[in-house]
Design goal:
The complex is a heterodimer of chains A (353) and B (251). Chain A is α+β, with helices and mostly antiparallel strands. Chain A has 13 helices and 8 strands. Chain A has a 5-stranded mixed sheet with strand order 2-4-5-7-6, with helices on one face. A 3-stranded antiparallel sheet of chain A has the order 1-3-8. In chain A, a hairpin with a 2-residue loop joins strand 4 and strand 5. Chain A is rod-shaped, with a radius of gyration of 38 Å. With 251 residues, chain B is of the alpha/beta class. Chain B is built from 8 helices and 15 strands. In chain B, helix 2 packs parallel to helix 3. The chains are: A alpha+beta (353), B alpha/beta (251). Chains A and B meet through helix 9 and helix 11 of A and helix 1 of B.
Amino acid sequence: MHPILARLERLAAYLALWCAIAVLVGLVLTQQGLTWPEALVLVLPPLLVYAFVCLSAWYVCRAMPLASSGVPGVLTASIVAASVAGGLWLALDEIWISTLESMPALAPVTLRFRAQTPFLFAVSVMLFLLVLSVHYVVLAFEAFRDAERQQLELKVLTRDAELRALRAQIDPHFLYNSLNSISALTGADPAAARRMCLLLADFLRTTLRVSTQESITLAEELTLADRFLSIEQVRFGPRLQVERRIDETAAQCRIPPLVLQPLLENAVAHGIAGLIDGGTIRLDVERRDGRLSIAVENPRDPDALPRTRGSGVGLENVRRRLSIVFGGAARLDAVPGPSGFRVALDLPCSIDE
Amino acid sequence: MSDVPPVLLRVVVVDDEPLARAVLREYLTSELHVEVVAECANGFEAVKAVSELAPDLLLLDVQMPKLDGFEVLDLVGREVAVVFTTAYDQYALRAFEVHAVDYLLKPVSAERLSAALARVRERLGRGERSASEGALAAARPPDGRAHRVLVRDGPRVHVIPVDKIDYVQAQDDYICIRSEGNDFLKEQTLAETEASLDPAVFVRIHRSYLLNLARLVRVDQDERENRVVVLADGRRLPVSRAGYTRLSALL
């Protein structure tokens, strides 16, 4: 529905504007020898009807948007529509004058009225074009405002998504426990406390930085993993051992950020932390035939209770992100064993040169 | 201020992280009338320390290998006051349900620990040494059924997976758990045990017996025409009228 017809007050304002136009046209007609009452009787009623004809300009604007139709198209459409509107005006004018002619008192002046028909035709075409251009301006303004709002919404959405992702990526309990370690070290070993602060700051900064990127190099992800494991080694002491077997040719492979991190977090939280004597986390990285495989293996307590907030969430998160980025071309396999847990990632390896 | 001279509070610190123990020990050494009598890195050590040293207070981490803090409290909560220390705030409600004296969030501050010690002294001063019976039944996991039953044998802890239990028998204030040819005594009521186990597996066949359905071979009658169940190992247990109704409903 036309926006002016949609609301009564808008329609009233629009028709008031047309009354003003009628007065202006009437003013011109008084210069041509008509009296004020005659001029108004001649133009006001048909112009008010014509006001509705001009609303059809809205549909022309909608059918031929400025942005996508090109100047010749818009011009042609405008001229055709204005001609049709002018034709309708002629019909309205004719009907009105004929009606006046049928009244004996007014019959004598209708001859002078008919003399004004060419002028009024020209006026009607101009008025239609005027209404049409006003419509275009209003629409362009609205489109601009919409675009601005959409951009704002998009910004908010992106930021929300980032925050959610961050919340999922940095486990607050990891922070609390790390801070507790720092608090403990402050008294006994201030130098170690400082090292831990720096490690933690470095870890947080890198996590925040890479989490907004679409892809990072495996080398960056491995650096982050080293920071994380160093922090956890301060916490767990000799209970946490790490063995790495890294294929150096894979270092420049581009991967989505933070796909390894959750696997290591699980390995610590659900593996090492549940063992009285701890154990060794094995990290294997291999590049072969354009594919990258990353495996994390950890021992775990065979008698451990199934955890209520388990590793499932973190793994599911990684799996979903991989499928968004790679479709079916990436895999995540979690293999629970009797005394250990192994998670293997297999994804395409692309290298920027 | 207080007329009563402050009693010495004997404390055991339980945490699997050495640094977490270190910071608590550091705070405790600057407290008056407090002695750290042991440090434990896991729940088994904690149970042992309670048995051998009879401390007044356990500062107890929740997430530890093998036995978590709630399981430790389940085992020794009648003998010692417990203050939990953890980085997780989601256990707070459960901690107070099982009558932990306090709940400290890591990183712990010295002031907060002092306040907790004051609460412990206050509670000990009222003569309430420990958690109440009913409260301890709430120590089972909030997600419902226990996966295992813990039984304390002095300083030792037996971990009995529920599928290894043949039946549980009420004996005065205790229950006797029959598993793999051994009997384990635990201070608990049969009703509490029943509530913590899966009702589709364990059925109350008698006022004094809770049976693992997987061990049932057949229902028989004894020489006085009373119903009995026969277990896989040939053992016979009495079945009451109400128990038989419950048993039939499950079979």
